Predict the structure.
Amino acid sequence: MSHGKGGPSHAPEFVAALKANGFNFFAGVPCSLLKGLVSKLDTDPDAGYISATREDSALGMAAGAWLGGKLPMVLMQNSGLGVSVNALASLTTMYALPVLLVISWRGEGGNDAPEHIMMGEIMAPVLDLMKIPHRVLSASEPMEAQVAWAKVQMLSNGYPVALIVPGGVLE
């Protein structure tokens, strides 16, 4: 199933959808599959994107942002999900601190560098195990609707929610 590989980046639409849904704190660790998103956030003075050195640090910043009245989004590569398990389990989920996780899907379908294959296979089961609602971001569906779904989920559950980004969608 193609999610938009080879087509234009949908990063401008995605950023517009984030802003339209009230997201106003952006942090994360860049990934090549998210380069269009990072570029849009990095050059947008209203976004104030913070490039973190580690994903768990970005989650800590997002927790503080939520407590300060912001609506946070954290972007990461799926290997960063592995780095973030403890911060997700012992901070954001335990204390009901909602955050939108935008996670690149490295190793999708077994196509990537060898170090990404296993994380690509286990990402969804890890999210399921942690009870983090998730769905794959699709280039063929309106970005506004997909971001709105995530916002409703995270605010109604007081929990992180993940949008998984396949190659070609936000590059």
Notes: DSSP finds six helices and six strands in the chain.
